[in-house]
Design goal:
two-stranded antiparallel ribbon, cell cycle, 2 strands, 21% strand, 57 residues, single chain, 2 helices
Length: 57
């Protein structure tokens, strides 16, 4: 089964664990899927606004 998000643990010598995350699906597909969840409407608006500001598709 394909995932939506990959987490990579980065151990840079500092205490604790640091993870970086990467989408395994196109950004617009992930946001569209989130938009189908009615409780995430305000979050989707914020994500789309930030994406627009940063020229992310």
């Amino acid at each position: 089964m394909l995932g939506i998000l990959s987490a990579n643990e980065n151990r840079s010598g500092s205490p604790g664990n640091y993870y970086s995350y990467e989408l395994d699906v196109p950004f617009s597909s992930a946001v569209d899927a989130m938009a189908d969840v009615s409780t995430l409407n305000s979050e989707v608006k914020i994500i789309r606004k930030i994406a627009s500001i940063n020229n992310v598709a």
